[in-house]
Write a structure and sequence with these properties.
globular
């Protein structure tokens, strides 16, 4: 289906938007794999949570690409799946973070901060790519929220790394992971609400 054949409710889908989505998929999956390795090397729960966000973002953005050209109802169902997936990730990260409060291990602050800065740079690029395309149906808004969450999560990781270094405890790392999980849940509810509204149209 060419862009000229798209229905009016898909007028926000342009070649530039497709290119932006492909770039976001590639950089998110690539850095997500690198960051999850970094999370284990640094023993940082916040880095692992942020890596999951990267991988989830890449996967959901790919789903958004597949959904281009589908009818509004199918796109809304796709967004609903994205919202549920994000919520499940949030619950999983929150549960594991609570468990880690019983098994305290101090992360490597230097590695944690380094990967956090790298992740922030990647996400600033992703946000800039998606900024012109943040309005549209529930599917488009879901992709935007995932990328925004990534950038916020990266800032939290960097701040937490600084406090881990200053306090020599794991609590800043665990608190950052918990906040990232709550961001997952907040965006999950927003995406599900948008998708349900689109399903009613």
């Amino acid at each position: 289906m060419s862009d000229d054949d798209l229905p009016k409710d898909l007028s926000h889908i342009t070649p530039a938007y497709r290119r932006a989505l492909w770039l976001v998929v590639l950089i998110n999956v690539g850095y997500g794999i690198a960051e999850i390795i970094g999370g284990f090397l640094a023993d940082s729960q916040a880095l692992k949570a942020d890596a999951l966000d990267f991988l989830g973002d890449g996967s959901i953005t790919f789903l958004g690409l597949l959904a281009i050209g589908w009818g509004l109802k199918l796109r809304a169902r796709s967004a609903l799946i994205q919202g549920i997936f994000l919520g499940a990730m949030g619950i999983g990260v929150l549960a594991y973070t609570v468990y880690r409060t019983q098994v305290l291990q101090i992360p490597e602050a230097g590695l944690m901060g380094g990967f956090g800065f790298g992740a922030l740079l990647i996400n600033v690029i992703a946000v800039l790519l998606l900024l012109p395309h943040r309005k549209g149906d529930a599917n488009v808004r879901a992709v935007w929220l995932f990328s925004r969450n990534d950038a916020l999560g990266n800032i939290l990781v960097i701040i937490a790394a600084g406090f881990v270094f200053l306090t020599n405890t794991s609590w800043p790392d665990l608190i950052a992971a918990g906040v990232i999980a709550i961001l997952f849940l907040q965006s999950s509810l927003s995406i599900i609400k948008d998708a349900r509204n689109d399903l009613k149209k």
